[in-house]
Structure formats: structure tokens, C-alpha cells
Amino acid sequence: MVPSGNGIRDEVFESLWATNKRGYLSPVMIIGYLAGCRKLRVRWGGITADASGAPNSARGLSFGVGSLSMTAQRQRSDDFALCNFVLKSAFTRTDVLGMKGRRRSAACLLVLAGTLSSVPVSASNSLPAVPHQSGESGESGDSVQLDGHGNGHGIGLSQWGAYGYAVNFGWTATQILDHYYGGTVSAASDIAGVPGTSNITVRLMAEDDQQTAVVHDSSQLKVDGIDAGPWPSVVARETAPGSYTVWARSDAAVCPAPTDPLTSGWMVVGTSLPMVTIRTLVDVSSSTNVADLLAVCEPLGKVRSYRGVIRAANGTAGENRTVNDVPVEQYLRPIVATEMSASWGPAGGGRGAQALQAQAVAARSYGIAENKYSYAKTCDLVCQSYPGAAWRSAIGAAYNRVEQPATDAAVLATSGIVRRVGSATGPVAYAMFSASSGGYTAASTLGFPAVIDEGDAAAGNPAHQWTAVVSTTTIAKAWPTIGVYTGLTVTQRTGQGDWGGRVVTMVVTGTSGSVTITGDQFRRALGLKSNWFQRRGEATPPTGPAAGLPAPGLPAAGAPSPGPCADRQPPPVTGPPATAPAARFQPIAPVRLVDSREGFGTARAPVGSNCTIVVQPPVDDAATAVAVNITTVNSVADGFLTAYPCGVDRPLTATVQPLAGQIVGGTALVPLGPDGTFCVFSNVPTDVVVDLFGVYSTSAAAGFEPIVAQRGFDSRGGSRLSTGTVVRVNLAAVALGGAIGAGAGAGAGAVAGAVAGAVALTVHALDAATAGFVTAWPCDSPMPLVSAANVAAGSSVTNHVEVAVGPSGEVCFYVSAPMHLTVDVVGWFGPTATTTFHAVTPFRLADTREGVGWTGPATRGLTRSVGVAGTGGLPGPGVVRAVAAQFTAVDAAGAGWVTVDSCQIPVLPLSMLRYPAVRNTAVLVTGIATNDGRWCVTTNSTTQLVVDVTGWFG
């Protein structure tokens, strides 16, 4: 309950921490109390925070640690995203943009404490870092002093830098954007024939898995498809899977709790609706009266007003979501008002308005470039801060307006303008931004280079330079294997800026050992503002990429230009591919082969457009192919990767489908060239990671037994698996039982009681609460630093994995974020298995876009077959038992899934590929063929399908 504003409330962090049931850090909730308090005092250890102000006005927040004190003016009192407030008179600002949701709530805690921008969630109630007091040394027996620059990831526009360039340098918004987003141009958001958008859909995260309850002060609510109303109150609840019931009342605006029975005063006005869209009859596009807007009832009591319409919908895993569908220009008004202070507009005689305009273009580009979910493009908390047009503490309370005239003017002045990569018809840039670059922006794979940032030194920027003291006990707790902390050494920096630039790698040492980590890992674990820091008194470490690898960037003066791909060129074609002999499988503990982000196995730089990495896996001469997982990270644009044997002409096939600004992975069985290498080609700039899971070799012992897919594990009977969960599954027993039960080939009965050496799996990461990954590895061995699936917040992905089982037949799965996990077994590897693998240079089996294999797109519920045996040089039916191929869904009309089976009746109730709307998605399938050499394929949504074969089992 929000206090009335007349009293004084003393709260203790620990008590709220314990009562926060949604999993968000309670300091966020504490800030929420400020909405109705005349005075608030929060104590935690030696930290005290006081808040005061007149009721229902913008209140000040003051806080202090030791001699440090600051005052800030809030713009929003929200239970979840209040750390996106701005500081009065441009004094200071705490960034959470750079964290993009990973630690926003933790950032709010340290806003209250007046310290840094994030803190790890820990059972301990001690803060990991406090501001520096003058006179402290660089390192003492119990603490380490760090000097730093910047706040956030530092990629793209610095908000303080934009302000500095506008006010102190007199730059226009276009000059600011050109500086921060080099390689992009200003262009229209909607161009004929070029992807863009005039509306944007936003997931309202406070409503996740709740009802959708909407109210209107003037009783003007209508529901699409229902010929009744208007009403002051409408509630939509899912009453059966994928089926909504709608209630309304005509007497008053009422916000029921999600568990309240809708009886007295409520009437059912619609049933069995797959989706519910609620709108107001008032034109809200330009209304200046926020009471005209429809408002959403939040579970914790607030009522938040939005322009556009509100929709109740389901995600791909059946989750309940509330979505705001709103014109982009209306969406931006609260975005810009929250990301920058409206008080910056009149600064410098009005020159500060150019910074607000630059922010508007960056935010517009970022929102349009996002495609996070099947039901919404973006979200309101961990994407950009979108608090709606206004909010109230309850129905009948005074409105707190978010939209501001100065920021509204910035949106209007840049209406319809975005940044596009390369040209006016290029893809919309994923225009990331952060609070402060510290004087040099960070390198990225998003199409714009790192640049010197003189504007960031604007007076009042508290993050341009900062100091923190970290206790050695906190460091040891973060990496307990080191024992008692003894020291840290930075081993590599980016080479851009003070002290040699941002920290790339470092070593933390203790009495029991040491760990090598990245600067980002150190920053996140200890709550530092950025990865650009230096231990006071340390020597400048090496810069640039790892020793022995070519440096990214321009060649030395006078040297010939290596071309746009430098040394990332495919080797010469040596002739037609040789026929690969029969090979068996050797599973290994997963190992990383390439990581262009770290300079491992290749140069430390993104793979350029139309460039090729040559990968040399650690295999002997008997190897014919490798099982690898290839991951693209923060691609500049949507595109494709092709993995193929070096020494042959690159086939016109695709292995992985990169998505702009996202992490996308996929498993591939890749044939090796005559010299034991394989090539990875990318048609868009992207970072690439390659992990090795196994080797196919003529000297290996394990054959492959394809089976009808069997479900081995499914967490969806309960709540999501929590972050850090490790699941042990006896998949050898599942695989062998499935083989025997299905009668999947000669010799299946002979393996009874045996233990498979490895299994072929389909791993589904479902309904992730935040971006994360799944790691699969043989139990009772160390967990490797590799991923089997990468998933974005709110989405679901599928990947094929071939992984060894542990001594007891178990495979372990680690989830890095809250999500559901299902695992299906599609085959097993062992000495008694009955097929061997024959690698082929990838070729296209089917493409519905071109009428190859099938004519016309796949449609919902339609099962179609395609011949696999006897095509592309493969042997005929009876010889080919199973085929390995990349399945790609292209331009899907909606989110869906694909099942590939040996023409089962009924259709196999498991899927091999999950895909979102519009965005291309690929996965490896190793499926059993029918006796006459066919596959049957079923999808539950209209989509184009492409199938590229990489080998066969027989």
C-alpha cells in the first residue's frame, strides 16, 4: 500500500527483500514508496537514504555514503524500472541502458546507496563496492581501489556525450548521430519495399502471466469483435489454453486483483477468444488530456495510461502477455522523456534540444530494429524504458505525467527518421546507447566503430571519471575457487583510450589458485559502472588482440591494403569434393574452437560482410566431419552463415540465420576438406563463436542408431527452472528404450542393458524470462564454457546437439536464466549401433520459395512429404536410413513449429524447429527416412521452408 503522504515511514532493506515475491530486488520497491511519502528514510548497514517532497509532485531523492551525497529528481515511481530516472539540473544520472535488463533492478539499489550502477544478487547484505574517499591507496589488505571511466556498455551514443556536443560544441542532432553511429545514415523509417514500421508492439512486463485489466475515466472502452459497450472497465482472462473470456462493467472504473472473482457488477461479454484487443473510442493519438487514454491496472496497484490499444495474447509456449500496440511516434514520447532529462532542452541557450533529438532518432531506430517476441517487437522494462504516458497510484488518484513538452518536441522534430546501415535502404541500425562512454565509445559488431568522445566530458557527468573501492572479501566470494584474494592483473585491453582502454581479459589470483576472466565479467560480478577501469598504481597492460594474431583496423602506413576481409578469405578451390568414407562418431567434452570476440582461433574482430573464417579443428587424418555449434553474436543485420569443407566452391546453402543485434546459434555436421579444415562464411558483419562437440572418423568406434524421437525431459509441469539450475537426465536409458520400443532398425534389441556413448538431442529453451543460454555436457565432468542453445528474453528456441553421456548414462543441462527446458532424444551413438555417417558437401534439397521439392509455402496442419534418398547423389531407399539436414523457416506469417518424422500416423507430437514470425530460423535435423526414402514435414503456421542436406546415415 502507498502511504498517504502525511507521515514518515522508516523501512529496512532486509524486510522488503524478503517480501518481494516477484523476484525483483526490493530497493526498486522502496523507490516506489516515494510516490506517496512526504519523507522516507531507508537504512542498510552504514547507508542511509532520505526522500522528501510535496505529495503528488516530483520529489527529490538524497542519499549518502560517508561524505558523499547527491540529490536527484525522479520522473517515474515504478515498481520495476524506476532506476531510469533523470537528475535535476543535469547534475548526475545513473545508467541502466548499458545493462539492457541484466541488472536494472540491482542498479536501482545502488542509486539509493549513491554508489555504482549494478550489484550482483547475493545472499550477503554487504555492498560490493563503495565510492572512493580521498587519501585511500590503490590496494590495502582488505580492499582494492579502482579508477574508471563511463557508465554502461559504451556502445553507440553516449547520452552525456550527446549533451556535451550539443551544448558545448554546438553540434546538431545529425552531427551527433553521424559521430556515434559511423557507417549509418539518417533515412526514413518507412520506405517502399524496405522493412520499417509505423506501429510498435510492446510487452508490458508487469502484467506477465496475469490478467489484462483496463479502465477508462469516461467509460469509452470497446473490445474488437464484440458488439456491445462502451464500458469503463474491461478484464480479459485466459480460461482455457489459448482461449480468453472477457468481462466488463458499466457502473464504474474498477481494477480487480488477478485472483478476484468477477461476479457482482461484472458481466461476461465475450468467450473463446484467441486474442483480445481493447481500445477507447476517444482519439488518443494527440490528446493532451491523459484522462482520455486507456489505462492498465498493474498487479501491485498502480494504474498506467497508454496511447494506442491494449491486447491480451499468448506467446509461443502459451504464456499470457499484455501488449500495447501504439504508433511509433507516440511510443517515443515517454521513451525520450525517461532516457534523458527534459531540462536538457533549454540548456546552452536551447542547444540542448539537439541532444534530445539525437536520443529520439536512436531510440526510434533501436525500437524498430528489435524483434524480440512472436507477439511483440519489444518490451517496456529490459529493452527501452517505456513507462507509458502517465501513471496513478490508484484509480481516482492524481495523474503523474511522463510525457514532457521538451522531449515531445524532440520526437516531433525527428518524426519518421531512423539510422540505416550503409545506405538509405539498408537495414535499420540496432542503435544501442548508454549513459556515458567515459571519453571513448566501445567497439561492437553493430556497424558503427568505436570513436573518441570529447562531448562525454560535459560538466556534471559523474561517470566520466569515477572511483570505487572493492573489498577483497567480495572479490573472493565472486570467485570462491581462488581462496583468499591476493591480487589481480589486467592482461589485455582494447587499446582505445586512457590506460590502454577497456579491460578485455584479466587474472584474479588467490591463495588456492587463479581465474582468467573478461573485464565485463569482473564489472558485472562486482557492480562496477563499466569495464573501463584500472587498479590504482598498476602498469599499463598489453593492448589489442591476442599475441600472434593480426590486429583489426587499418593497415600500417605504406602497407598494401589487405582488402575488406583482411586474412579472412577462403583457401583456393582444389577440385570437386571427394566422396567421404563411412565414419563413426567420437564424442568429446565440448571445447571452444573460435571466438572472434576474444581473438580465440581468429582475429579479435567481427567477421566482415562476405568474409570467411578457416577453422582447423584438433582432429586426426581419419576424421571426415565434425559436430559443431556455431553462434553469431550481435550481428549488424539479418543474414546467413554457411559452413562447408574448405577447398571446394562454397555451396549456396545456409547453416545459421543471424539476427540483427541478437545471439543466434545452431548445430551443424560439417564435412572437412582434404587438409582437415572447414570454412565459415558470413554475408553480414557479425561475431562468430564455434564450439566442437564431436568428430566423425573412420577410426572411431561409435555408430549411430536413429530412433523415433522420444521426450527425455520436460520442466513445464511446474515453474520455470531458476537461474543456475543444473538438471541431470539419464538420456542413455531414454535412447535405448526408445530404440527398442520403436523397433528402429536392426540390432536395436541387441543393445538392451548397454549404455550409449553419446546421444543426439533436440534441446528446447522455452519462455525465457531474460536472455540466456543452455549448456549440455556429460555429467560428472567439468561444465564447459560452451552453449547448446541461446535464447532471447521472452522467446523460445530449439537446437540439435550431439553430446557424450557421463559414466552413469546421464547428460547434464545448465540454464543461465529462468526458463523452461525440454529435451528430446532422436538417436544414440555406441559400438552396437547399426549405421555409419557419410558426409556430403551441403546441397539444397527443398526450397518452397523456388518450387524446389515443394510448391508453395507450408501451411498450418498440412503434412507434406519429400524424397530424401536418391537425391543430390545420396543412395536410394533401403540404403539411406536417416538424413542430416538444416531446416530453415523463412518469412513465417506467425510463430510456429515444424515436425519432421518418418510419416508417422498420427503425426509425431514433438517438434524439431521453433520459429518466430518474419525472422528466419534454422536448426539441424537428423531424421529417420521411411522405407521408400521419404520424410514427412508438418508445420502449425504458414511459412516458407528451406532444407539443406549435409550427410546421411546408412
What does this structure look like?
The protein is mainly beta and 954 residues long. The protein has eleven helices and 53 strands. The strands form 13 sheets. It has an eight-stranded antiparallel sheet with strand order 15-14-13-11-17-18-22-23, with no helix packed on it. Strands 12-16-19-20-10-21 form a six-stranded mixed sheet. It has a five-stranded mixed sheet with strand order 1-2-3-4-5. A hairpin with a 2-residue loop joins strand 28 and strand 29.
What is the topological layout?
Layout: E1 8-12, H1 13-19, H2 26-33, E2 39-44, E3 47-52, E4 60-65, E5 68-73, H3 104-113, E6 129-131, E7 143-148, E8 157-158, H4 159-169, H5 173-180, E9 184-188, E10 199-203, E11 212-215, E12 221-223, E13 233-240, E14 243-249, E15 267-273, E16 276-280, E17 294-297, E18 303-306, E19 309-314, E20 320-327, H6 328-339, H7 353-369, E21 378-379, E22 390-392, E23 400-401, H8 405-413, E24 417-421, E25 433-434, E26 466-471, H9 472-478, E27 485-493, E28 503-510, E29 513-518, H10 519-526, E30 533-535, E31 584-595, E32 611-615, E33 623-633, E34 641-645, E35 663-671, E36 678-682, E37 687-697, E38 703-714, E39 726-729, H11 731-742, E40 758-766, E41 772-778, E42 789-791, E43 797-804, E44 811-815, E45 820-830, E46 837-847, E47 863-867, E48 882-890, E49 896-901, E50 913-915, E51 921-928, E52 934-939, E53 944-953
Parallel strand pairs: 1-2, 8-25, 10-21
Antiparallel strand pairs: 2-3, 3-4, 4-5, 6-26, 7-26, 7-30, 9-24, 10-20, 11-13, 11-17, 12-16, 13-14, 14-15, 16-19, 17-18, 18-22, 19-20, 22-23, 27-28, 28-29, 31-37, 32-36, 33-35, 33-37, 34-36, 38-45, 39-44, 40-43, 40-45, 41-42, 41-44, 46-53, 47-52, 48-51, 48-53, 49-50, 49-52
